[in-house]
Specification:
CATH class of chain B: Mainly Beta
Largest interface: A-B, 44 and 55 residues
Number of domains of chain B: 1
CATH architecture of chain B: 3 Solenoid
Helix content of chain A: 10-25%
Structural class of chain B: mainly beta
Low-confidence stretches of chain A: 13-18
Number of helices of chain A: 9
Shape of chain B: elongated
Strand order of the largest sheet of chain B: 1-2-5-8-11-14-17-20-23-26-29-32
Structural class of chain A: alpha+beta
Radius of gyration of chain A: 21 Å
Oligomer: heterodimer
Radius of gyration of chain B: 23 Å
C-alpha cells in the first residue's frame, strides 16, 4: 500500500512539476540569473506563451512609460495564495513573481505586424522581501539578459497617426527600480491592488473579471465585495476629476505620498489625499530649484499655465521633468487631461 | 605584561579580519564609465571602498548608490571629476539612499538637477568633495550642490560648492548635522539649514553668493519646527551675486548682499562670525512671510542668541528689487541699514502680554554693530515703531550643546 502511495505522490510531483514549469528555486535564489530564460516563466524563446501557472493580467490605470506597451503576468507558487490588503497591493506569498514586458508595436495602427521588446522586468518575492531586476532584450529579440546598471535603447515605432516616433528608452538600473517601487524604504509592487485589477480580462478560455479568475485559480484567498476602483483615465464616460486623480495616483502617487520617496516635498498625489494644500493647491515649492520654471505654486486652480505640476509634466529636461525617471517623452494626452482638470478647479 | 600581549595579538588579528572582509575596487575613466561606475555602485558590498582614479568621467544618466557602509573615494576634488554635462536622464548627478556612506575626494560637475542628493540616510559623510556648475551663476544650473534630506548624522567637511541656483550646501528635514571647513561661492544661498534639528555650522567661508548662510523653516512638510542650530566662526562676507534663483523658490526672495538670515527656528546661536561686505544687511532674524493654514507650524524665530561676532560693512548697496526684505528695511531705517535686523513680529498674545523670557532675542557683545527692530504694539497704535536700542536686548547668553556624530 505505502509503496503505491509513494508512487502516486511521485507521479503527482512529476506531473505538477510539468504543469508548473516555473523554476521556483531560481526565484528564491540569492543571486539573479543572467538571463530571463532561467526562470522558465515562458514556454517560448520570445516570452509570449506563459508557462502553466503564469497568468496574464491588466491594470485599470497604468503608469506612462514613453508610450511603450506593457504585458503583465503573475505567478504564485502552487499551494500558496496571496491575501487581500486594504488600500494596498495583494500580499503575495514567498516565491511569487510579477513579470512585465515593455515593448513597442512596429505599427500602432496594426498591432499584428509585430513588436519590438525592450525589457522584461521581474519583481520577485523572496524570503527577505521583494526584489526587482530587469532583463533587456537583444536586437534579434531572442534573449533577454540581466542589466544591473541599466541600458539605453534607441527605439522607434509608427504611432496611431502614422507618424514615425523615436525614443531614447532607458532600461532602469536596479536602484532606479527602487526609486518608484519603494515604500518606507522597502521594495513593493505598485500595480496589483485589488481595486486596480477589478476589470474583465479576455482569457483564452473566455472573458471574466480578473479577481474572479484569480480566486478560481487559487492565486488569492479572497477579495472584498465593494471595491472602489480607480477609473481608466482615458475613459471619457467618467468625470474629469476622477480621471485626473486616477492618472496622478498611478503616475505620481507612489512617490508623492506620505510614505513615498518624495514625501519630503509635502506634495501628495495619491488617490486618498484630500487636503488641498498637500494636493498642491497654492502650494509653494520647497526644493524644486529650476523645476519651478519661474512659477509660484504647484497648482493654481483655473490656471494650468501657472501650475508647476503641469510645467514639469510637459518638460523633457532631466533636471525639470516629472516623473524623474522612466520617461524621456512628454505624455501629450495626459497633459491635456491634467490641464483641463486644473482649468476646471 | 600578559594583558598587553593579548591586546596586541587581538589588535593584529582584528586588523587581519578586517582586511579580509573589506575589499577595494578601482575604476579609471573610460568610454563606458556610465555602466562601469553604476554597476560598481550596485555590486559593491558593505564595508568596501570604491576608488576612482584621477581623470574626468562622463555620464549620460544619473548615478545612484543604495548599499550601506561603503566609501567612494577619488584622487581629490580637483583630480577626479564626475562630469554630467551630457546628462540626458536622471534628476541628479549622484543619488545616495543608503546608510553610513563616505564620499571623499572628487567633484561633481554640471549636473542637470541637484549635484549630490542623499535621501533618508543614517550617516552620510562628505569630505573634500566639490560640486560645481562651471558656467558661473545661471538660473539653468541645478538647485543644490550638496543636498542631504530626511537624513541623520550628516557631515559635510572640507567641501566646496559653486554655482547652485538654490543653495550650494543645503541640509533639509534632517537631524544631527555638522557643516564645517567648507566653502560656498557664487550660489544663491551659500549654506542653508532648513527644517532641521541640531546643526553645527562652523569654520566655513560663504562669499560671493546672493546670501551667505540661511537657517529656514517652512510649513506643510513632514519635519518642521527647526531648532538647535549653531552658526559660529564662519566668514559670511562679500555676498554680492545677483539673485539668480528661478522664481517660485523661497530663496528667490532673498536680496543680494545678505550675510545671514534666521527665519522661524528656535534655539539658535550666531557667534564669533565675520559678517561683512554684504550690501543689503549682515544679519536678519525674520518670521515666515506667507500665510499658512498649517496649525502645527510656528512661523516666528525664538530664542536666538547673537554674540561675539565681528560685523563689517553692510547696507551700502541694498538690493531693493528682490523680495520684500530689503525694501522694508530700507524704508524703516531711512536708508541706514542696520547690521542686525529683527522684524519683531510676534503672535498676538505675545504682542499684548509680552514675550516669555526664554523665547527672546538676546544680543551679546558684537563690537559696534547697529540693531533695528519693530515694535508691533507701537505700529498698531500708530506710533513710530522703529527701535534701535541695542542694549534693551542684552541678556545672559546660554550656550547650546555642540553636535557630535558617532565615529567622527
Amino acid at each position: 500500500m505505502s509503496g503505491l502511495r509513494a508512487f502516486v505522490v511521485f507521479i503527482f510531483l512529476f506531473i505538477s512539476h510539468q504543469i508548473y514549469g516555473v523554476n521556483d528555486s531560481v526565484i528564491l535564489a540569492d543571486k539573479f540569473p543572467k538571463t530571463l530564460d532561467e526562470f522558465a516563466f515562458f514556454e517560448d524563446k520570445k516570452a509570449q506563451d506563459p508557462a502553466d501557472g503564469v497568468l496574464p493580467y491588466e491594470l485599470i490605470s497604468t503608469l506612462f512609460s514613453d508610450y511603450s506597451y506593457k504585458q503583465r503576468w503573475v505567478y504564485v507558487p502552487d499551494g500558496r495564495k496571496a491575501t487581500y490588503e486594504e488600500d494596498w497591493v495583494f500580499n503575495f506569498p514567498v516565491g511569487s513573481a510579477l513579470i512585465k514586458t515593455f515593448y513597442y508595436p512596429l505599427d500602432e495602427r496594426s498591432l499584428d505586424k509585430g513588436k519590438n521588446m525592450m525589457e522584461t522586468r521581474v519583481l520577485l518575492r523572496k524570503e527577505s522581501g521583494w526584489e526587482a531586476v530587469s532583463y533587456a532584450w537583444n536586437k534579434e529579440q531572442t534573449e533577454a539578459k540581466i542589466k544591473i546598471a541599466g541600458k539605453t535603447i534607441n527605439a522607434s515605432w509608427i504611432d496611431q497617426a502614422g507618424e514615425q516616433r523615436s525614443v531614447r528608452y532607458r532600461v532602469p538600473n536596479k536602484n532606479q527600480c527602487k526609486e518608484c517601487h519603494a515604500t518606507n524604504d522597502e521594495i513593493t509592487p505598485i500595480g496589483p491592488k485589488a481595486r486596480n485589477l477589478n476589470k474583465i480580462y479576455h482569457y483564452e478560455d473566455g472573458s471574466v473579471n480578473q479577481l474572479t479568475k484569480w480566486l478560481q485559480q487559487e492565486i488569492i484567498h479572497n477579495y472584498p465585495e465593494n471595491l472602489v476602483s480607480p477609473v481608466d483615465w482615458q475613459d471619457e464616460s467618467y468625470s474629469l476629476d476622477d480621471r485626473a486623480r486616477s492618472y496622478l495616483d498611478i503616475n505620481c502617487g507612489h512617490c508623492h505620498a506620505p510614505t513615498g520617496a518624495a514625501n519630503s516635498t509635502g506634495l501628495y498625489l495619491n488617490f486618498s489625499e484630500s487636503r488641498e494644500k498637500h494636493l498642491g493647491f497654492y502650494k509653494k515649492p520647497v526644493a524644486t530649484g529650476r523645476g519651478s520654471g519661474g512659477l509660484k505654486y504647484s497648482i493654481v486652480p483655473g490656471k494650468p499655465e501657472e501650475s508647476i505640476l503641469l510645467h514639469r509634466m510637459i518638460s523633457t529636461d532631466p533636471g525639470v521633468m516629472m516623473p524623474e525617471s522612466g520617461r524621456a517623452l512628454s505624455h501629450s494626452e495626459a497633459i491635456e487631461l491634467i490641464g483641463n482638470w486644473i482649468k476646471s478647479l | 605584561m600578559h594583558k598587553i600581549y593579548i591586546k596586541i595579538i587581538l589588535f593584529f588579528s582584528l586588523a587581519v579580519i578586517q582586511n579580509l572582509s573589506t575589499e577595494e575596487i578601482s575604476l579609471e575613466p573610460s568610454l563606458n564609465s556610465q555602466e562601469e561606475l553604476q554597476e560598481a555602485l550596485i555590486l559593491i558590498n558593505s564595508g568596501d571602498t570604491l576608488r576612482l582614479s584621477k581623470g574626468t568621467y562622463y555620464f549620460e544618466d544619473g548615478l545612484s548608490l543604495d548599499v550601506d557602509n561603503v566609501t567612494i573615494e577619488g584622487a581629490g576634488m580637483n583630480e577626479t571629476i564626475l562630469n554630467f554635462s551630457k546628462q540626458a536622464s536622471g534628476a541628479q548627478g549622484l543619488l545616495v539612499t543608503s546608510n553610513k556612506v563616505t564620499l571623499k575626494g572628487f567633484s561633481v560637475e554640471d549636473a542637470k538637477g541637484d549635484a549630490i542628493k542623499v535621501i533618508g540616510a543614517k550617516g552620510i559623510y562628505m569630505i573634500n568633495v566639490k560640486t560645481e556648475w562651471t558656467g558661473g551663476p545661471k538660473s539653468s544650473n541645478g538647485a543644490y550642490g550638496f543636498y542631504p534630506v530626511e537624513s541623520s548624522d550628516v557631515l559635510i567637511d572640507g567641501c566646496v560648492a559653486i554655482g547652485a541656483s538654490d543653495a550650494g550646501i543645503y541640509v533639509g528635514q534632517s537631524s544631527n548635522i555638522i557643516v564645517r571647513n567648507s566653502t560656498a561661492q557664487y550660489n544663491v544661498a551659500g549654506i542653508e539649514i532648513e527644517n532641521s534639528y541640531y546643526a553645527d555650522v562652523y569654520d566655513n567661508l560663504a562669499s560671493h553668493n546672493t546670501a551667505g548662510i540661511l537657517v529656514f523653516d517652512l510649513p506643510d512638510l513632514p519635519q518642521q519646527g527647526g531648532h538647535h542650530v549653531r552658526v559660529f566662526r564662519n566668514k559670511s562676507i562679500d555676498n554680492d551675486t545677483d539673485n539668480f534663483a528661478p522664481e517660485g523658490n523661497i530663496v528667490g526672495e532673498v536680496p543680494r548682499g545678505t550675510g545671514i538670515i534666521i527665519q522661524a527656528n528656535s534655539d539658535i546661536e550666531v557667534f564669533d562670525n565675520d559678517i561683512g561686505g554684504n550690501g543689503t544687511v549682515n544679519l536678519a532674524i525674520v518670521t515666515y512671510g506667507y500665510d499658512t493654514e498649517d496649525e502645527n507650524y510656528y512661523p516666528h524665530p525664538r530664542s536666538v542668541q547673537v554674540y561675539d561676532n565681528r560685523f563689517g560693512n553692510s547696507g551700502f548697496d541694498p538690493d531693493l528689487e528682490t523680495g520684500e526684505l530689503a525694501a522694508i528695511l530700507f524704508e524703516l531705517s531711512g536708508g541706514e541699514m542696520p547690521d542686525i535686523f529683527w522684524d519683531g513680529i510676534l503672535p498676538m498674545s505675545q504682542i499684548i502680554f509680552g514675550q516669555p523670557d526664554n523665547e527672546k532675542i538676546i544680543l551679546g557683545d558684537n563690537g559696534n554693530a547697529s540693531f533695528l527692530t519693530i515694535s508691533p504694539i507701537k505700529y498698531m497704535i500708530g506710533m513710530d515703531p522703529v527701535n534701535t536700542d541695542y542694549d534693551s536686548f542684552r541678556g545672559e547668553i546660554k550656550p547650546l550643546k555642540a553636535v557630535s556624530i558617532e565615529g567622527i
